[in-house]
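Q: I have 181 residues here and want to know how they pack in 3D. Can you give me a structure?
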Amino acid sequence: MELPPPQGWLPLPRSLDDADPQAVAILASLRIVDRRLVLSRREVAALAPAVTEWLAQGTGAQEITRALTLDLPCSLRSRPAHILAYRLREKPVAVPTTPAPPDQLDVLPWQTCDGGCERAFRAARPGSCGDCRDADGTPDRDGTPDGDGSTGADSAETVRAALRDRSAAPRGRSKGNRQAA
């Protein structure tokens, strides 16, 4: 009865002549990125089929090199081929046939206020900033003076009055205002 090789061991190598030349080139050039990644012909022949699978999934040579060399331990206690075999075991996800939709929102361009203050603000079209529209009573983009039928100056004055009334009210509880429990 033949036992399977222990976990983490390299697969039995095929001949290097049978391996994909691009996979061999990627594996052989790893030592350019990290001098510790010197591989024997036998190790390259054993790892080449896994690299070929990554290439078939649409992963480029630079991405494979990055995946194999990024964040290697400072000291390699075993043959580097074992670490590379471990990293190649997880197959990459296939490249989608259609690109993913953009996840970023469109940012409105900067506009300079035409109302006189020359303040910069973001808007789809040139015009006045919100403060200048409120001060002039100029209608918003939807055609209403301030969205609720009142002018911007009216709503600003209402807010100011509410803040004055709130600040005039006594703060905290005095001893006479406590309610019986």
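Q: Anything worth noting?
A: The CA atoms of residues 16 and 156 lie 79 Å apart. Helices lie at 21-28, 30-33, 41-56, 61-69, 80-89, 130-136, 152-168.
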